[in-house]
Design a protein that fits this description.
heterodimer; A: 424 residues; alpha+beta; Dihydrolipoamide Transferase; Chloramphenicol Acetyltransferase; seven-stranded mixed sheet; 19 strands; B: alpha/beta; FAD/NAD(P)-binding domain; Enolase-like, domain 1; five-stranded parallel sheet; 14 helices; 25% strand; globular
């Protein structure tokens, strides 16, 4: 029996995925749950395991193609002997097969193969439910129908969609700063100046889209304050080892910032809200995103119900996220949702920045580099570990007063961490 | 029988009965209340459409067309017939039998779907209750979770020529004549006026049609309207445009109709006068006080795009609400509402409601007219194909008319299709399906059409839009 291997259900926020690479080719025997292919969405890499043991008969999608939820990726012949599916090896297997009663049928199948190949191509097009004019244009322009947004009934692609698609030649996009290719080590001959055009990765394209979306739909404004982290540093110095011993993870700064933010979010619920149409949705839970930098770009895994997490829970989760993100093993569920975000530009040495809100959230807290600076405390100039903190917020629903007081609350909690214990 | 239902539908016309059946298919308990009474006082489901509109008029259009063709066309085919005569009572009997089959069909459909039928006047009370008053005055209250108002429409009366039921009649009356009037006047050259005028013209009446508007078929594509006017005048319909009726006097069994047109005050004497100037929503005694359902200034029940009235759980569909007064539009609204009540997805695409006039040649269209596209400022192209060039039409001896496709110049999307010619009402279905799927002209070009059929006309018209027609010189 042949089984269709399909793209797993992608979450609503993910439109499609790119097929990165096949691990198997037609004719290969596969074990159940063996990874067949890697798909990359704009957030994670997904593996598609074999639903059952058998032989991979046909790959329906090539490397690099865009796929959508439920799309057929391959045909798997359940329980079949290895190589039976591939025409070339089928011929080789014929003598062995001759012993079996099914041999005549097998031979017939082989002779029919060339004709069937042509038919299969047409069936592909038919399976995608393309109208005659769309089939013609896709063929003539060498288009991938999966990349054309369909506006017709049930999402079908109309000729209008193809004409529009062809009219939208993507504007030459300069490579994003973070991904700028290093210039070639040996500069080109004098007088010749070259440039490289590199297509954005899906993650980068998605980030670009989200950033612009936030900038165009929200009224973003950033407020600053500074925090004296001496108390936190002292606390960490005092309990660092004990903490590590009893919880198995380092006591970092992030848990303090998450805890301090939650105290402030509770005090100013609108900072934890989002806008939907003309409504403000107040979230009565605290799902805090923590930005993590990976090779492929920035991702923001979510600490669910962070208000109920201990310092140790937070530290452990953040460390695990960072590791899994670098391995590309983070799941989509871990990246979706979130009511508030904390980003730490300090790890790269930033002293001040205006982060962009992770839409549809309404605010983001920016942490920065801790720097010893002279401060005046009780009339004396003393050296203190200072950090500038920034809150970018959606001015549509959050007033300046609330944003400023939010930052002050965060500051107060961090400068006197015992407040975190007493929720004051 | 319990008096509490998930859905109570008021009206079993072409909007109400589909709503009831679909609601029952959606496993809801459904009652349908209808008050239509025939002239003999018997109740009948089906509303205007089945009893006094679409179905009986089509029966007479078919019969009269055959009678006309026997006279005018059979000799051309080489068929000699002698002593052809009209048996109007038999023709009317056939019509009545078709109506009877159709209306009793609804009773059977209700039975098989499990819809509880109620015969009597339905009135919506506050709190989603429906009061049913039977012919004998007995009252019954039905409690509903949802009420669907499908009360339909009635002919509009002309103040200057009020109905008298004998000489001045509405469209229903014009289907019931027991003899062919020698002279027939029709006020209103709309769909109904033209169809009724055609019936009696073919059966021998001298027909004069008075239309107040200076344009003929103003709602249709004007290229089509011009072609239609040419054919109708050739058939002997005396169509006067810009003719405003000022009064009608009945004397000695005849009606003197006075009207004003470009030539000044005029008068014409007819034996029967049909007033077919339009229809108005029928909501008489439909709404008790406090239901929360609102009417607009023209008497239509106010609804949103999903046919919700201002009152929670009360819906309204068909002729009683905005939009064209067409049975198929009402049917789709009824089905949509029944699905929405059941929590399912449903919508009516008002841009692809086809219109058909069952004259000969038949007239049908869907989408925008060339005038509307022109006015929108959008660049467009058109292609048309005359039935004169269709082998099948020539074989049928029905070569009048053409098919016309209007498409966007940039994206090739079909914006409107207009057909005048044999079976236009059937041919338009392909265009409606195509437009429902946002098809391009090229999609129709690349779709195989059987030969020889009338459907090739639409295929060739689509090809002509890109000057690629095969069977007619491209201009």
């Amino acid at each position: 029996m042949s089984i269709e291997v399909r793209v797993p259900q992608l979450p609503e926020s993910v439109a499609d995925a790119t097929l990165v690479s096949w691990h198997k080719k037609p004719g290969d025997a596969v074990a159940r749950d063996e990874n067949l292919v890697d798909l990359e969405t704009d957030k994670v890499v997904l593996e598609v395991p074999a639903p059952t043991a058998g032989v991979l008969r046909e790959l329906k999608v090539d490397n690099g193609a865009t796929v959508t939820s439920g799309q057929v990726l391959a045909i798997l012949e359940e329980g079949a002997a290895a190589s039976a599916g591939a025409p070339a090896s089928a011929a080789a297997a014929k003598p062995a097969a001759a012993a079996k009663p099914a041999a005549p049928a097998a031979a017939a199948a082989v002779s029919a193969a060339p004709a069937a190949a042509g038919a299969a191509r047409r069936d592909d097009a038919a399976a995608q439910k393309l109208s005659p004019s769309v089939r013609r244009m896709v063929e003539e322009n060498q288009l991938n129908p999966a990349q054309i947004a369909g506006s017709g009934k049930d999402g079908r692609i109309t000729k209008t969609d193809v004409v529009t698609h062809l009219g939208q030649k993507p504007a030459p996009a300069p490579a994003a700063p973070g991904e700028a290719r290093r210039p070639s080590p040996a500069p080109a001959a004098r007088g010749e100046r070259s440039e490289q055009r590199v297509p954005m990765t899906r993650l980068r394209a998605r980030i670009a889209e989200r950033m612009v979306q936030a900038q165009t739909t929200q009224a973003l404004l950033t407020s600053f304050n500074e925090v004296d982290l001496k108390a936190v540093q002292d606390l960490r110095a005092r309990y660092k080892e004990k903490f590590e011993k009893s919880h198995g993870s380092r006591l970092g700064f992030m848990s303090f910032f998450v805890k301090a933010s939650i105290e402030a979010l509770k005090k100013f619920p609108v900072v934890n809200a989002s806008v939907e149409g003309n409504d403000i949705i107040y979230h009565e839970y605290y799902d805090v995103g923590v930005a993590v930098s990976t090779e492929r770009g920035l991702i923001v895994p979510i600490l669910r119900d962070a208000d109920q997490m201990s310092f140790a829970d937070i530290e452990k989760s953040v460390a695990a996220f960072a590791q899994r993100a670098r391995d590309g093993a983070i799941t989509l569920e871990e990246l979706t949702g979130g009511t508030f975000t904390i980003t730490n530009g300090g790890v790269f040495g930033s002293l001040m920045s205006t982060p962009i809100v992770n839409s549809p959230q309404s605010a983001i807290l920016g942490m920065h580099k801790i720097q010893d600076r002279p401060m005046v405390v009780d009339g004396q100039v003393v050296v203190r570990p200072m950090m500038y903190i920034a809150l970018t917020y959606d001015h549509r629903i959050i007033d300046g007063k609330e944003a400023v007081q939010f930052l002050v609350t965060v500051k107060e909690q961090l400068e006197d961490p015992s407040r975190l214990l007493l929720h004051i | 029988m319990s008096d509490s239902f998930d859905v109570v539908v008021i009206g079993a016309g072409p909007a109400g009965y589909p709503a009831a059946i679909r609601a029952a298919q959606n496993r809801l308990s459904v009652a349908c209340v209808d008050e239509w009474q025939n002239r003999d006082g018997s109740y009948a489901f089906g509303g205007t459409c089945l009893n006094a509109g679409c179905i009986p008029s089509k029966a007479l259009l078919e019969s009269s067309e055959l009678f006309h063709r026997v006279h005018g066309e059979f000799a051309t085919h080489g068929i000699k017939v002698a002593n052809v005569s009209l048996d109007l009572p038999a023709m009317q009997k056939r019509k009545a039998a078709i109506v009877k089959t159709s209306t009793s069909g609804i009773v059977a459909l209700f039975k098989s779907a499990g819809v509880a039928p109620f015969q009597g006047h339905g009135r919506l009370l506050a709190g989603r209750k429906v009061e049913v008053t039977g012919a004998d005055g007995t009252r019954r209250i039905l409690q509903a979770r949802h009420v669907v108002l499908a009360s339909g429409s009635v002919p509009t009366e002309l103040k200057s020529a009020p109905f008298d039921g004998a000489n001045i009649v509405d469209s229903w009356g014009a289907l019931e004549f027991s003899s062919v009037p020698r002279r027939l006047g029709v006020i209103g050259a709309g769909v109904i006026g033209l169809e009724l005028g055609s019936v009696w013209r073919r059966l021998g009446s001298e027909v004069v049609v008075l239309e107040a508007l200076p344009e003929f078929l103003a709602m249709a594509d004007q290229q089509l309207a011009k072609e239609a006017l040419k054919h109708f005048r050739k058939q002997g319909l005396d169509i006067r445009l810009g003719a405003k009726v000022t009064g009608a006097t009945i004397a000695n069994g005849a009606v003197a109709v006075r009207f004003t047109d470009a030539r000044g005050d005029q008068s014409v004497e007819v034996d029967k006068l049909v007033v077919a100037i339009g229809r108005r929503p029928y909501t008489r005694d439909l709404l008790a006080d406090g239901t929360g359902v609102a009417l607009d200034e023209r008497g239509f029940i106010n609804v949103d795009h999903e046919c919700r009235t201002a009152a929670e759980g009360v819906w309204a569909v068909g002729d009683a609400v905005r939009g064209p007064m067409l049975a198929h539009k009402g049917k789709e609204e009824g089905v949509m509402v029944a699905d929405l009540i059941a929590g399912q997805f449903s919508e009516v695409n008002y841009r692809t409601v086809p219109s058909v006039i069952y004259t000969a040649p038949e007239i049908a269209w869907v989408g925008l007219t060339e005038e509307q596209v022109k006015q929108s400022g959008r660049a467009y192209k058109t292609g048309s194909f005359p039935f004169l060039a269709s082998g099948r039409a020539r074989a049928m001896e029905q070569t009048g008319g053409f098919a016309k496709v209007i498409s966007a110049a940039d994206t090739d999307e079909i914006l409107g299709v207009h057909i005048i010619g044999p079976m236009a009402g059937e041919l338009i279905a392909e265009a409606v399906l195509a437009m429902e799927y946002s098809a391009s002209t090229e999609d129709i070009q690349r779709t195989i059409h059987a030969h020889p059929t009338l459907s090739e006309a639409l295929h060739e018209a689509a090809l002509a839009a890109d000057k690629r027609a095969i069977d007619f010189p491209n201009r």
